[in-house]
């Protein structure tokens, strides 16, 4: 079987996962080539203020005279970039700490488990706000770092539990008997059996990063000059968009955040099927008479 064939089959065979994959693909295309979705190539270009939706401006213009649809399309890149980067980095930290703690055992397991428990019980939102406020949340590396620090622990606990169930399996015992190093066993023996859980963990962290990044931008702890959905919500709230008839300035980024988050959640159905065969739909064979 080709690598990734099982994932592709699970996505195509599940209507919810397929819908999520299609939605995510649209957002990825918009992030890479936003010119395909709008004829205005500068999201900060100014027109007449507060124009209603029409042929020239699909969602109208805001209080600054900026085209709302163009801002929405160009804001996809930063929002999706933050999701992917935080998802990848936090997943790597989760794998290193969670799987290592389960396989190594002894004092190393106790220390890594204690570290995971500490981050699990720390209130995430106040910690995020404090770090972002004092470390300069408007800087992209700081924002990503804050989300990674606060987003890895739950996945590490899940991966540790799964790795502990594999720790005494025969194929791992044979690898140890062959004299393989711990790093080899973890990377080439344990992780390939946990691909579906790692992918599900990535999607969960990406969803967390999407919502939290938008929330930080909304309350003014991000870069207010950046093009992102959270920044659109921030300026819409600041300029009382709902009270002044600029509803699409609020609805559009909120709907985009919801749809991207839904695509992550729907894709999770495919990885649930891979990890748990009992969830796979039963396909009945037609009986020939």
From TrEMBL:
SUPFAM superfamilies: MetI-like. It is a multi-pass membrane protein. Residues 80-268 form the ABC transmembrane type-1 domain. InterPro entries: BP-dependent_transpt_permease, MetI-like, MetI-like_sf. Gene3D superfamilies: MetI-like. Keywords: Cell membrane, Membrane, Transmembrane, Transmembrane helix, Transport. One of its GO terms (cellular component) is plasma membrane. The keyword Cell membrane applies. The chain crosses the membrane at residues 17-37, 79-104, 111-134, 140-159, 184-211, 248-271. It is found in: Cell membrane. The keyword Transmembrane helix applies. Pfam families: BPD_transp_1. One of its GO terms (molecular function) is dipeptide transmembrane transporter activity. Its main location: membrane. Belongs to the binding-protein-dependent transport system permease family. This is ABC transporter permease. It comes from Microlunatus elymi.
């Amino acid at each position: 079987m080709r690598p990734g064939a099982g994932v592709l089959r699970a996505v195509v065979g599940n209507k919810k996962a397929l819908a999520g994959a299609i939605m995510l693909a649209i957002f990825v295309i918009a992030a890479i080539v936003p010119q395909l979705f709008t004829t205005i190539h500068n999201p900060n270009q100014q027109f007449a203020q507060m124009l209603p939706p029409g042929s020239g401006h699909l969602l109208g213009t805001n209080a600054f005279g900026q085209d709302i649809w163009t801002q929405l399309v160009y804001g996809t890149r930063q929002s999706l970039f933050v999701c992917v980067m935080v998802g990848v980095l936090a997943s790597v930290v989760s794998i290193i700490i969670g799987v290592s703690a389960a396989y190594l055992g002894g004092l190393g397991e106790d220390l890594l488990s204690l570290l995971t428990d500490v981050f699990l019980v720390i209130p995430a939102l106040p910690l995020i706000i404090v770090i972002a406020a004092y470390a300069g949340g408007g800087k992209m590396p700081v924002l990503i770092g804050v989300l990674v620090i606060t987003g890895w622990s739950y996945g590490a606990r899940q991966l540790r539990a799964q790795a502990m169930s594999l720790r005494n399996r025969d194929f791992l015992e044979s690898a140890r008997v062959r004299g393989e190093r711990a790093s080899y066993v973890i990377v080439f023996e344990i992780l390939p059996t946990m691909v579906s859980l790692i992918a599900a963990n990535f999607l969960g962290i990406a969803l967390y990063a999407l919502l939290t990044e938008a929330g930080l931008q909304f309350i003014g702890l991000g870069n207010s000059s950046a093009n992102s959905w959270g920044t659109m919500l921030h300026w819409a709230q600041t300029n009382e968009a709902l009270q002044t008839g600029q509803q699409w300035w609020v609805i559009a980024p909120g709907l985009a955040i919801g749809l991207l988050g839904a695509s992550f959640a729907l894709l999770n159905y495919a990885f649930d099927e891979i990890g748990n065969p009992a969830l796979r739909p039963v396909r009945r064979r037609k009986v020939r008479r």
